[in-house]
Amino acid sequence: MKIENPFESGHIKNYILFYASVIVIVVLFFLATTLFENDKKQIEKKSFDVNTTLIKEQKKTEAAEKKEKEKPRFKLLNKAY
Which of 6, 35, 43, 69 is the most interior residue, by most CB within 10 Å? Predict the structure, then answer.
C-alpha cells in the first residue's frame, strides 16, 4: 500500500477551500444579523414590593409546618407479617 503525498493529490487544497467557505458563510451571517437588526424596544423595569412577597412566603412556610406537624411519624403497614 502506497501512501500518497497530500500536496500532490490535491486533498489539502480541498480542505483549505472548505475551511475558507465555512469562514465566509460565518462572516456573511454575522453581517446579515448586524445590518438587518430590528430596533430593540425599550422595556420598563418592573419593581415589585418585596414585603408582600415575604409575607406570602411566610404564610406558605407556616402552613407547610402545620401540615408536617399533623402528619404521624410512623405509617402502619397494610398487612401484618
Answer: 6
Query: Where residue 74 falls among pLDDT bands split at 50, 70, 90?
Result: confident
Gap between the Cα atoms of 29 and 36, Å rounded = 11
User: Where is mean pLDDT largest: 25-29, 40-44, 49-53, 65-69?
Assistant: 25-29
The rounded mean pLDDT for the chain is 80
CA distance 44 to 77: 57
Contact of 43 with 49, CB cutoff 8 Å? no
6: CB partners within 8 A, 6+ apart: 12
In one letter, which amino acid is 58? Q
Name every residue whose Cβ is closer than 8 Å to that of residue 12 and which is 6 or more positions away in sequence.
6
Cell matching residue 41 = 424596544
C-alpha closest to that of 66 among 76, 58, 74, 56: 58
